[in-house]
Amino acid sequence: MATPSWLDVPEGSHFSLANIPFGIISPPDSTERHAAVAVGSHVLDLAIFSAENGFAALESFSAHANNAFSLPVLNYFAALGRAVHREVRSYLRSMFLQDSPHAQILKNNESLRRRCLFRLDDVRTHVPMSIGDYTDFYAGANHAYNVGVLFRGANNALQPNYTHLPVGYHGRASSIVISGTPVRRPWGQVLQNAASDPKEPTFRPCAKLDFELELAAFVCTANPLGQPVTLAQAEENIFGYVLMNDWSARDVQAWEYVPLGPFGSKNFATTISPWIILADALEPFRTKGLENKSRLSPYLVPSRADTALDIDLQVDLTTTAGHRTTITCTNAKNLLWSFPQMLTHHTITGCPLNVGDLLGSGTISGSTPGSQGSLLEQNRNGTAAIELRGEEQRLFLQDGDTITITGCCGTSAGSRDLVGFGSCRGTIEAALLKTH
C-alpha cells in the first residue's frame, strides 16, 4: 500500500517516500549549488530549508545542518555517518507524511514551500560529491565470462584470480560527469590489422564506442593509511549508490591494454545518475548475488548471504531519428562480489579511502540474450548487428545516439512505493576535427 503524503507523488515515481535520495541542484534562476532531496516530481532545497531553521525539530542534527547542506557537495553530510543519514532521511520523510507531526513544517507554510520546494524539471543537477578517487571493479561475472570467451575462448574465459579477489583498476575521477552531459567521441591509437608485422597503429576517432551498465557506491568514511577496513566495517562505510555508465572505446582499448590494462580507452567520460540512493533505502532489497564456489580468504567471507541488491536495470538506445529501443534488461544481483567486499579488498593493503571516493561495480550482465550490459557482448565484438526500432541497426554507438540507463527496486510491491535511481543519460557527440 502506498504511503500517504500531502504532496502528490505520481504513480510510478522513482522518488517515492520509501526513497528520499540526496543530490546537488541549482535552484530555478540560480547558478548556486545546493543540497536537496527528491520527492515525487519535486525537490526540497536543503540549503534554503536549513537556513530557515527547518531542522530545528531535529535537535541532534540541527547544529550540523547548515554545514552539511550549505556546501556545493554532500561530502560533509556523508562523513557524519550512516546513523546520521538514517535519522535525517527519516525526519525528511516524516515532513511529507500526511499525518506526521512534522508535516506542518512545510504543509502549512506556503511561504517556506515557495522558497525551497521546486519542480524537479525546473532545477539543474550536478555531480553530488567531490570525488577524489574512482576505482572500477570487474565484479560482473557474466560480463567477464562473455568477454573472456570472445577473446580467449570458453576454456580460458576467466583468469585464475577472478573468483578469489575483486579485480579492479584505478579510473579517472576528473572525467566523471552528471547525467545529461554530452560525451565526446575520443581519438586514440587503433590497430586496424591485427595480422600485420610489425604491428603499426592508426591514430583516428574511436569506431567502436560502447556503453557499460554499472552500479557505483560512494564512500562516507575515511580509513587511515595502513589500516584496512574489515568487512563488517565496510557496510557502514558506504554512503549510497548511483547508476553509472563507464563509456568504453573498444578499439582503442584492444591496442593499449597490454600489459597494464585500459587507459585512454576509459578515461574520457564516465556518467553517473544525479541522485544518491542511501544505503538504508536499499536495505529492504538485499538479496543473494552470484554464487562464488571458490574458497575465499577469511577477510572476504561475508557474515550473511544477502550481499547483493535486487535492482531491476534497463538500457535504452535512442537514435537521431528518435527511435528508442530497450536493448538490455538485467538485475544488479548479477555480481560475484558485493560492494563491502570490494571496499574491504581495496583497503586490505592499507590503502586509505576518503569520503567521496567512488567504487564502480564493473559491467553488469545477465546470462541470457538481451541481458548483456554492453554492445561488445551483444554484437559479439562487432560480428552481429543489433536490431533497433525503425529498421535501424547498430554494431557500436554512432554520433547522436543516446544511451539511457534506469534502475528501480520494488516493482513487484506497488508502483507508488518504488525506490528508483531516475536515469543516467548521455548523448554521443562527434569527435573533434583535430586533436592538436
TrEMBL record:
Annotated residues for binding of Mg(2+): D246, K266, T270
Protein keywords: Calcium, Hydrolase, Magnesium, Metal-binding, Phenylalanine catabolism, Tyrosine catabolism
Active site: H143
BP terms from Gene Ontology: homogentisate catabolic process; L-phenylalanine catabolic process; L-tyrosine catabolic process
Alphabetized InterPro entries for the sequence: Fumarylacetoacetase, Fumarylacetoacetase-like_C, Fumarylacetoacetase_C_sf, Fumarylacetoacetase_N, Fumarylacetoacetase_N_sf
Reaction(s) catalysed by this chain's protein: 4-fumarylacetoacetate + H2O = acetoacetate + fumarate + H(+)
Keyword Transit peptide in annotation: no
Cofactor: Mg(2+); Ca(2+)
GO molecular function, one term: fumarylacetoacetase activity
Residues bound to substrate: Y138, R152, Q253, Y257, T363
Xref: SUPFAM superfamilies: FAH, Fumarylacetoacetate hydrolase, FAH, N-terminal domain
Gene3D superfamilies noted in UniProt: Fumarylacetoacetase, N-terminal domain, Fumarylacetoacetase-like, C-terminal domain
Binding site for Ca(2+): D136, E212, E214, D246
Fumarylacetoacetase-like C-terminal domain mapped to chain residues: 135-428
EC code: 3.7.1.2
Residue ranges constituting the Fumarylacetoacetase N-terminal domain according to the UniProt record: 18-128
Pathway it works in: Amino-acid degradation; L-phenylalanine degradation; acetoacetate and fumarate from L-phenylalanine: step 6/6
Stored NCBIfam families: fum_ac_acetase
Protein family per UniProt: Belongs to the FAH family.
Name of the protein described by the UniProt record: Fumarylacetoacetase
Protein species of origin: Exophiala oligosperma
